Amino acid sequence: MQSTIIFALLSCAIGAALAHPMPEDLTMKPTPPPQYPLNLQGGGGGERGDGFGFNVKGQQNIWTSDNGRHEIDLTGRYGQHLGGPYGNSPPSYDFGGIYRFRF
Q: Which residues form the signal peptide (predicted)?
């Protein structure tokens, strides 16, 4: 009886090993670099009777060199204060660029 159980377990182990074929290529394929979408951030706040201030800013990568050491980004920001004792402020716009070099 014991030999039958051992034979059955051994047969199951061998069958399981042979049933799953081994892949031919065991090396992992390289992971592509991540593609980041437009980075947007915003915020705002204020207190009762003081109006409401807010701003929105964004940043987008527009060029990366082939070796990944040089990058150029464009940035932009919009801000304004609405209401309150002094009324609405004129809108504030900022635009710029960022050059990045990785050592």
A: 1-19
- Taking only the tens place, the pLDDT of each residue in 52-80 is 999 999 999 999 999 989 999 999 999 99
The Cα–Cα gap between 81 and 50 comes to: 10
Encode pLDDT of 9-52 as tens digits. Answer: 888 778 777 766 666 766 777 887 777 678 888 888 888 888 89
3-state secondary structure 76-101: EEEEEEECCCCCCCCCEEEEEEEEEE
- 51 in any annotated domain: yes
* Encoded tokens for 76: 């932009």
Q: Do the domain assignments include residue 2? A: no
The reply to whether 6 falls in a domain is: no
Q: How many domains does the chain have?
A: 1
* Residue 21 belongs to some domain of the structure: no
